[in-house]
């Protein structure tokens, strides 16, 4: 008999660690999104680590800005950014306050509330694609900049929280280059995923955007 996932909330201390420890340890954890229409629960299957001002691929590499302010705050908070003029992506801040490291949530399996996620992901061909990629994950969970700064470790009524879930055994964790990251930041093997999980997004190397003539 398979044990049910642990629904205990993850404490702030979980996130108050180096980003390269937190990132693989997030695999198998449960992300709960409470919406006005009901809850959606996602099991994390793919993440990506960004190491702040030590990492050329990080939004915080060049210091604090209005956009990345949350990354410099307390661990366990949600950092949401807007990209390519159309998509939101969701991160979890970790490390000591002022450190500005975070983990991008790249993909997951919707384990509860799939019917709600489907209404937001009409182009998904099946439920395995509902949150297969960071923009798709945010869309499926109805995440936008209004949730930027949310405390995912807060108790009580909160729109986002992280539960203990069922951590993935280290033998099933894989890592490799981050998807779509260019330059010096592209060499780090800081993308982590669950081996052979169908919800994990495909790897894509960075392709420079061409300017319109």
Automatic annotation (TrEMBL):
Its EC number is 3.2.2.-. This is Putative 3-methyladenine DNA glycosylase. It holds the Pfam family Pur_DNA_glyco. The lineage of its organism: Bacteria, Bacillati, Actinomycetota, Actinomycetes, Kitasatosporales. One of its GO terms (molecular function) is hydrolase activity, acting on glycosyl bonds. Belongs to the DNA glycosylase MPG family. InterPro entries: Formyl_transferase-like_C_sf (IPR011034), MPG (IPR003180), MPG_sf (IPR036995). Keywords: DNA damage, DNA repair, Glycosidase, Hydrolase. SUPFAM superfamilies: FMT C-terminal domain-like.
């Amino acid at each position: 008999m398979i044990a049910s996932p642990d629904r205990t909330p993850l404490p702030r201390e979980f996130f108050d660690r180096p980003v390269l420890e937190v990132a693989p340890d997030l695999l198998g954890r449960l992300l709960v999104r409470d919406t006005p229409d009901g809850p959606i629960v996602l099991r994390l299957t793919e993440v990506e680590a960004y190491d702040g001002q030590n990492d050329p691929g990080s939004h915080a590499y060049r210091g604090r800005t209005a956009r990345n302010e949350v990354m410099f705050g307390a661990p366990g908070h949600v950092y949401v950014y807007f990209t390519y003029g159309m998509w939101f992506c969701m991160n979890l801040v970790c490390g000591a306050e002022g450190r500005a490291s975070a983990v991008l949530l790249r993909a997951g399996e919707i384990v509860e509330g799939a019917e709600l996620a489907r209404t937001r992901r009409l182009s998904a061909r099946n439920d395995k694609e509902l949150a297969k990629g960071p923009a798709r994950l945010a869309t499926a969970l109805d995440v936008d900049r209004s949730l930027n700064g949310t405390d995912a470790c807060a108790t009580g009524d909160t729109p986002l929280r992280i539960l203990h879930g069922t951590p993935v055994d280290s033998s099933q964790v894989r890592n490799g280059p981050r998807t779509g990251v260019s330059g010096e930041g592209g060499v780090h093997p800081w993308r982590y995923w669950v081996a052979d999980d169908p919800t994990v997004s495909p790897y894509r190397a960075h392709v420079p955007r061409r300017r319109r003539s």
